[in-house]
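A student in our group prepared the protein record below, which I am reviewing. I have pasted the whole thing underneath without changing anything:
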Amino acid sequence: MISLNFANVMEEVVGEKGLSEREMEALRGKGQEALGQMLQRKWPELAFLDLPDGDTEEIKDVALRIKDDSESFLILGIGGSALGPKAILEALSPFHNLRKTPKVFIYDNVDPRSLTGILSVVDLKKTTVNVITKSGSTAETVASFMILWEEMEKVLGKKMTGRIVATTDPEKGNLREIARRYGLASLPIPPGVGGRYSVLSPVGLLLAEVIGVDSRELLKGARDMRQRCLEEDLWKNPALLLSFVLYLLSTEAGRNIDVIIPYADGLRPFSEWFCQLWAESLGKLGMGLTPYPSVGTTDQHSQLQLWVEGPEDKVVIFVRTEDYGVDIKIPHIFEDMEGLGYLCGRSLSELIKAEEESSELALAKAGRPNLTVHMPAIDAYHLGQLFIFFEITTALTGFLLGVNPFNQPGVEEGKRYTYGMMGRAGYEERRLEVEAAREKKLCWRI
């Protein structure tokens, strides 16, 4: 089970810049209200809490067909529809395309060079495309889907529909209509589950099964962690504690930047997944906490100096891996050299853990609050725990801040301008606004 160590945010450890138990207890009433919103399901978007109870049989059947007849598996999605699958892929099957098939490609942008590159290396006759958009109208995703549809039709004719899986709303939307019209295989994203909370739905679970990961283990881990994170006792609930700490350090100490730094290359995409979850959920009404993705030990050498001696506006969240599953011993060579000999006979896992713990201590000694999430192993069970832990923490932090952690009005505004620029009916006024803004910018260009 993953665990949270919050010693390095308490005043007993980091001094006057830390929090006291008294401050934590003073927030208990507000925290119980936030947790109550979750326990009483006051928001329909809390449906993500039900995902760990899902049935994966249909997902497994679809994945089996893909593995049987596909050399490549191409995901089209953006935001949570791509970041979640990426986090699973890199954590649980590193260097996948060099070792296993089907090879996995995740296209999460509309950069024509990237899509051209993918099309140059995959055989569309042996490729399954998984298009993921709950609304069915996400401009970036449907644009790439339309291009793939045409390209696959050129080489497969009508048979191409058998190589497309639509992951979308179970009842409505353009993609659901296309799936019905053309008889596409499809998987539902449950109503109420937003994109950034969808990784434990078919959005992430189909990819997991395709790469040989048992989706039931992801869900089992999430179920076990969910139980802990809905505990009403503050001092037994790690998600509630983390939300308290980050809320208090933001509102009382101005620490509005949250650095997340897992000490494992395979968890780098997880930190990117967290950043969308955190930023899009909390950045509203002039409030919010800015996420900052990093990876250890790499970013000790590029960023730690800033965190230790720079502006006091950050909280660092370490994710420590206890068991890497493999290890490599450092050989007994150059033993006579003072700057190298001390490493002989030690292992890389010892070194990376020492680096992580040293960074914790350096920050704490400088009075810079930090926390550590301990992850026993990088496997499906514990990754499922990590996902649900941060999802629940995010929702609780949103409730504490008094914002809706499930909508994204700022993103929607940007989408409306895009629709206007691309000529979508009903958005003509937005196009005119864009043209007027262009005129204003001309005199400032050099």
Summary: Residues 3-39+219-401 form a domain with the Rossmann fold fold (CATH 3.40.50.10490). The chain is about 50% helix and 15% strand. The beta strands are 3-5, 72-76, 103-107, 127-132, 164-168, 185-188, 257-262, 290-293, 314-323, 370-377.
